[in-house]
Design goal:
Rossmann fold; alpha/beta; three-stranded antiparallel β-sheet; about 200 residues; binds S-adenosylmethionine; seven-stranded mixed β-sheet
Length: about 200
């Protein structure tokens, strides 16, 4: 089920900015993989949170590669249009909303500004194919997806995340998704109050 909303788990997004971004900052380009992104609120929230903390020059070198199984075959269009109905954006803090959304021509819809749209692209991808859609990611974000998998599948997917990350890259999962024992030697925990790990 593709349940999601803007700024879900802001704490983890903040931890990424505070603890992962500084050590990725020396890279020319920062590639982020958002695995199981649903229809876009998560990768766009991450893009906004990063933009809030960085300048234009730095931000334009960030690319969030958002992927999802997308059983409905609709997410690609939704994410590239980046136009969301009022009910999905009304809880976004007013100052953020005013900076990053503009009224769309479609009635009661609001569209993310071009700068944020440029930072996110979408590709259909099945995590259980165990084939990574890329390599050398500085960060893999995978939230509220692995809980639907068996323990064995979770372990294999996390191993795939590990090999998709570049040296010193980060993995972030939802607060309740602990790292299985079988893969704990592959990552070092970064903070105690979020599931944010650094590749060993
Ligand atoms: C509950 S939503 C989570 C969305 C977002 N990550 C969040 O936390 O708000 C779970 C998403 O996982 C996707 N998903 C489920 N199985 C998947 C798979 N095998 N490969 C890729 N995505 C999958 C679903 O399509 C859905 O969009």
């Amino acid at each position: 089920m593709a349940f999601t909303y803007f700024f879900r788990d802001l704490q983890t997004l903040d931890m990424i900015c505070e603890h992962a971004l500084p050590s990725l900052k020396s890279r020319r380009y920062i590639n982020i993989w958002d695995a199981g992104c649903a229809m876009g609120p998560e990768p766009y929230s991450l893009a906004i949170v990063i933009r809030e903390r960085t300048g234009y020059m730095y931000f334009r070198n960030i690319k969030i590669h958002a992927t999802d199984l997308d059983g409905s075959d609709l997410f690609g269009d939704i994410i590239s249009n980046a136009s969301y109905p009022w009910e999905q954006v009304e809880r976004i803090p007013k100052d953020i909303f005013e900076r990053y959304f503009v009224a769309d021509e479609k009635e009661k819809h609001y569209r993310l500004v071009q700068e944020i749209r440029n930072a996110v692209d979408f590709k259909k991808h099945d995590l259980l194919s165990m084939k990574s859609p890329g390599s050398d990611f500085g960060l893999v974000l995978c939230k509220n997806v692995l809980l639907h998998f068996s323990e064995h599948q979770r372990i294999e997917v996390i191993k795939m995340f590990h090999s998709s990350l570049s040296e010193g890259g980060f993995l972030a999962m939802e607060q309740t998704q602990k790292l299985p024992e079988a893969v704990s030697h592959l990552f070092e925990p970064i903070v105690s109050h979020a599931q944010l790990y650094k590749k060993i």
